[in-house]
Amino acid sequence: MKKEKLQELLLSFKKGAISLESALEQLKYLPFEDLGFARIDHHRSLRKGFPEVIYGKEKNPEQLTAIIDKMKVTNQPVLITKFSQEVCKKVKAKIPQMEYNAQAQAGVINRSSEILGKGTILVISAGTSDIPVAEEAAFTAEVMGNQVERLYDVGVAGIHRLLQEKKSLFAARVIIVAAGMEGALPSVVGGLVASPVIAIPTSVGYGANFRGLSALLAMLNSCSSGIVVVNIDNGFGAGYFASIINQMSEGK
Fold first, then answer.
1. How far apart are CA 80 and CA 85, in angstroms?
2. What is the pTM of this model?
3. CATH number for the 120-246 domain, one of 3.20.20.80, 2.40.50.140, 3.40.50.1970, 3.90.550.10?
4. Residue 235: which of 137, 150, 138 has the closest Cα?
5. Could you tell me if 244 and 238 are in contact, meaning their C-beta atoms sit under 8 angstroms apart?
6. Where is average pLDDT lowest: 31-45, 52-66, 70-84, 210-224?
7. Cα separation of 46 and 25, whole Å?
8. At residue 245, does pLDDT exceed 70?
9. Domain boundaries in the chain?
């Protein structure tokens, strides 16, 4: 928000020309900072409960550094997704306090240790090859203030591995399941638990997997109730949605 617009808004409220509710509503949508190549939405957290997240893919180190420098001064968490370790090294040379999760290809500045979630988010991967996507979901949920547990490599080819972990399955408030190939695992989990299940189709698989399309269609056609599906390889989206559910008060 430009200083002049902010002053005008505050003066209008001071004079009684607008109500407190109206002023707050305008503050939600007015402010952003124009860097030329990016427009930073500084008040995203007012509307969404969490600051704007930086999608790092295709951004160069200089662009990422400039955006992070502007965002980190608010002392709110700054989450960056989908950027390589090579790019991270160049960014960390200027912002050494950044924490990086190599498996998730995600980083964070100003990470808070406060737990806001009401329960545990359980993140499951069907195979070891699905772990990078699952880890992006887990890292996102942790940065957003949730207690996260991981359960990896328990796919349907050896279903006994999953059934051995019933205690974790039944205790979780929200479950995220990442699976490629035929994408069957979310249906199995959804048929076992009462908690909501968020399915992530991954691009893992052979030719007829169509880079995750077969898993996506299988998950969308699941006969198990209580499953929602995010886009292919969208671990961030799954972690974000799981956080929203986990931080809702009971009864909402």
1. 12
2. 0.85
3. 3.40.50.1970
4. 137
5. no
6. 31-45
7. 9
8. yes
9. 26-109, 120-246
Which residues, in sequence order, are CB contacts of 121 under 8 Å at separation 6+?
138, 141, 146, 147, 148, 149, 172, 173, 174, 175, 176, 239, 242, 243, 246
pLDDT tens for residues 150-177? 999 999 999 999 999 999 999 999 999 9
Which residues make Cβ contacts (< 8 Å) with residue 40, sequence separation at least 6?
32, 33, 52, 67, 70, 71
Structural contact between residues 139 and 239, judged by C-beta atoms closer than 8 angstroms: yes
Which phi and psi angles does 91 have, rounded to 5°?
-70, -40
DSSP track, the chain: --HHHHHHHHHHHHTTSS-HHHHHHHHHHS--EE-SS-EE-TTHHHHHSS---EE-TT--HHHHHHHHHHHGGG-S-EEEES--HHHHHHHHTT-TT-EEETTTTEEEES-------SSEEEEEESSGGGHHHHHHHHHHHHHTT-EEEEE-S--GGGTHHHHTTHHHHHH-SEEEEEE-TT--HHHHHHHH-SS-EEEEE-S-S-GGGGGGHHHHHHHHT--SSSEEE--TT-HHHHHHHHHHHHTSPTT-
